[in-house]
């Protein structure tokens, strides 16, 4: 029973982290119909920033996430301004290939600058700390990262649903021209949305070095899982992405533990296939 | 202010470089209700889009409240008091009635003012108040049209431009919408109206323009246009 709870806990905690990464992807997709293939690399760059802040100046990830979030916001906004804007009105493939190119560029730039080495931050505030409740062990850095992720997802959701700015974002997603007629500068909304999408993944990336190694390829698996969350949850739906992320975290943990570690992604992507066959628009499609 | 509130001078515009408007001039004075009428495809919507700033004229000038808005994008013309209720309503279908209205006042930042505007449009269209929390897509066609007009009023514009308010409504509802437009105009709002329903549009207007294949072919007082043989033959089947 304790083992079962432990596996479930691990699954849920991973899922919450995936949810934050997926929320950023989902937001960009929902508003602009663009899949940001560089999403995982935004995460990687944010992790490097947090890592170097910690390594060089002893800034803890508990603080660095702010810098990483802001940095990734800027990268997102710049990506829109310099790349995505020029692909609007062209085929959907254009944006896809452009962000794919950006992901390659970022990955190789980091490989060149920082080598492929795994970099681990030692002596962070939460690093290695655990506590246990009835035999179930909680890893403090992972718990903090996951709860924080949940908090940020909730904030993004509230921003979209409950504020005037959020309505403006939704309006732009639903009918760009009609939004312009309301006096909404949709170009600025796009910059903001890409920035927010970046910030979500940037915050996650800022926290991760407290328990995860940083290396140039670290974003790949995360972005793949985030994509699966978004597609399974329903493109553009943040609650859908959250639900799917927790589901994926659980499937990953249980199949990895009770079947075999190498089986876990077979299970995750198998589930994904089943869901998209059964409901092509995802569980919570807009 | 003297002179017309909106002055359009010899504009040419079209889609992908192919002109469909060939030199249109018109003006609207403070407090007027002016109708632009014409058959399907005459270029009424295109003219309105050019004025609102959703598309740019190839030639000609548009002046609003003395400001040259020829090249001004829609989100800025809105800020200086020009509100366009587009053809087909274009409501934000998944948002509630209240959220749609709030977005109509997006350029306003003062909460008190926004609430006052909400009260005003609810008074004008009480149905909307009853349905404030319902999503726009679940409203009936007539209610959606009311909402589109109300949303256009939320910014307290200096000029309200209405495109094809009768579209898809049954005759009794058309009459209700027309009555609402008249009462909005009576309250002091300047209105530029576009309609295919020539008779209805000219009956409520002070002046009118008749548009045909991208050109103005007749203009003058609405009464005169209603009595003109050409208009009666061409548009009212008389
Ligand atoms: N998006 C577009 N792309 C290309 N041509 C268009 C577009 N919209 C309209 N047109 C063309 O421009 C001309 C004028 O159309 P417009 O919509 O302005 O007419 P309208 O008078 O508003 O007609 P209706 O009464 O049917 O609304 C038509 O010939 C139409 O085919
Ligand atoms: Mg039209």
Describe the 3D structure.
- The complex is a heterodimer of chains A (286) and B (238).
- Chain A has a single domain (2-278), classed as ABC transporter involved in vitamin B12 uptake, BtuC (Orthogonal Bundle).
- Chain A has eleven helices and two strands.
- In chain A, strands 1-2 form a two-stranded antiparallel ribbon.
- In chain A, strand 1 and strand 2 (136-139) form a beta hairpin.
- Chain A has 286 residues and is mostly helical.
- Helices cover 73% and strands 3% of the residues of chain A.
- Chain B has 238 residues and is an alpha/beta fold.
- Chain B has two domains: 1-81 and 157-238, Rossmann fold, CATH 3.40.50; 91-156, no CATH class.
- Helices cover 39% and strands 26% of the residues of chain B.
- Chain B is built from ten helices and ten strands.
- Chain B has helices at residues 44-52, 74-79, 97-104, 111-124, 126-130, 141-153, 171-186, 198-204, 222-227, 229-236; strands spanning 6-15, 18-28, 33-38, 59-64, 67-68, 82-85, 159-163, 190-195, 207-212, 215-221.
- In chain B, the strands form two sheets. In chain B, strands 6-7-8-3-9-10 form a six-stranded mixed beta sheet, with helices on both faces. In chain B, strands 2-1-4-5 form a four-stranded antiparallel beta sheet, covered by helices on one side.
- In chain B, strand 7, helix 7 (171-186) and strand 8 (190-195) form a beta-alpha-beta unit.
- In chain B, helix 3 runs parallel beside helix 6.
- The longest helix of chain B is centred in the last third of the chain and has 16 residues, at 171-186.
- The model of chain B has no long low-confidence stretch (mean pLDDT 93).
- Classes of the chains: A mainly alpha (286), B alpha/beta (238).
- The A-B interface holds A 164, 167-168, 170-171, 174-175, 177-186, 286 and B 52-54, 73-76, 78-79, 83-84, 86, 90-95, 99, 102-104, 106-107, 151, 155.
- Adenosine-5'-triphosphate (ATP) is lined by residues 15, 20, 38, 40-46, 87, 164, 196 of chain B.
